[in-house]
Amino acid sequence: MSLIVRNNWRLSSRAFGLAAGVMGMAAGATAADLPGRAPEPVFDQERFNQRPVQKQTSRKWSLIIGGGGEYEPEYEGSGDFEIGPVPLVLLTYGEWLQIDPKGVTVTPVRHSGFSLSGKVGYESGRDADDYARLRGLGDIDFAATVGLKAAYKWGPLEFYATVDQTIDGSESLIGTLGIGYSAPVTEKLILGAKAEAIVANDKHMEAYFGVNAMQAAASGLPEYKAKAGLKRINVSASATYLLDEHWLVRGQTGLGILAGDAADSPIVEKKLQPSVSAVIGYRF
Questions:
Q1: In this predicted structure, what is the pLDDT of residue 59?
Q2: Which parts of the chain have pLDDT scores under 50?
Q3: Residue 3: inside a domain, yes or no?
Q4: CA nearest to 97, candidates 27, 167, 184
Q5: DSSP single-letter state for residue 222
Q6: So which residues are the signal peptide here (predicted)?
Q7: What is the CATH number of the domain that holds 66?
Q8: Domain that holds residue 28
Q9: pTM here?
């Protein structure tokens, strides 16, 4: 958790997705794909599988470190944008453990394309004093989260569903239903795309988009009660390029579309929430 310092190293969910994508895309690339080796006459799909063939390497762990930046809304619903750093620290061990800046993920079940994972992480919250429009609304505290993910991989497609519960803080319960696609275009270039829908409970919606009587008096915004339901739809596209045996770069562009009571909140200035990010990483 100490990898991220509030406001100086603030990561959005899109940034975490970008970081996780780096690990997934790079994990299948081996030294056989890199300069200095004779190219294969026919493209070998196995080299880019997210689970490397055991005979290719006896090493069970993989580590990527690096960083980059993201241009995104100042807060969810903001009409103003900021550039923030994106630290990249990703460690995997075998097929069952992944540690990244957002938390620890354990995958005890993998069978015929299906996987089931558990995760312990955190919700960074929100500091109202950082943004003029939010002043008077009060802070949302930093808190721990626990979650589950069920996924099914079919060729280059992955269908997934997640549920995450915040312990203390906003006490949010958030569900995500999505589909992702990733595939190699050349020996070095991998393209990806993702679409997902996010739903949230009353407590999350009230914490991030509601305005009670006390907050209205302090902020000048009208009272507003945000109810549970569809909160947001996200779409994104990415490209990962393997520079050599160790170095890689990845860029991602995304668009979040606030929906339901979130979109109608007086806190929200813009329903469309675009973002652009890029990272460079070194794989050990």
A1: 78
A2: 1-16, 18-20, 23, 25-56
A3: no
A4: 27
A5: P
A6: 1-31
A7: 2.40.230
A8: 13-283
A9: 0.80
